[in-house]
Design goal:
Helices cover 32% and strands 8% of the residues. It has 130 residues and is mostly helical. Strand 2 and strand 3 form a beta hairpin. It starts with 5 loop residues before the first strand and ends in a 14-residue tail after the last helix.
Length: 130
């Protein structure tokens, strides 16, 4: 999906399903679209679709919607699956929020969450890297 520069836009824990063989499947592609900026006529200027706790910082600030937005949302999903709550990253910050993720999940999972929740989209990891 991201190779085609298409963004899901409403990725959240309720839109990820466990498929055959234990693989994650994404659903609810209602807002699926090509990456664009907030002035895009197709989106009527709205690029902030999704749960408020999961909207990436750059989208909330009015910057372009890119695949990095979905990576942020997936990082929020991983956090949710580990803690049972969505992170309030605007209040806590990533490092403080990660203290809520049990060490039981190990360094790889905690590292993947950290890679996905980088504040600046240009340093946020891609899906392949995670």
């Amino acid at each position: 999906m991201h190779e085609l520069i298409v963004v899901h836009r409403i990725l959240n824990p309720g839109n990820v399903y466990l498929g055959g063989g234990g693989k994650a499947k994404f659903g609810r592609f209602k807002f699926l679209k090509e990456s664009c900026g907030p002035g895009c006529g197709f989106s009527f200027g709205r690029c902030d679709v999704g749960s408020p706790m999961i909207i990436a910082p750059e989208v909330g600030a009015g910057y372009d919607v890119t695949p990095a937005r979905d990576i942020w949302a997936f990082g929020c999903c991983m956090y949710y699956w580990c803690t049972g709550t969505l992170p309030d990253l605007r209040q806590l910050g990533v490092e403080k929020a990660l203290k809520n993720v049990s060490l039981h999940f190990g360094a790889r999972v905690r590292g993947a969450i950290r890679m996905a929740l980088q504040t600046y989209p240009q340093v946020r990891s891609t899906a392949d890297e995670i």
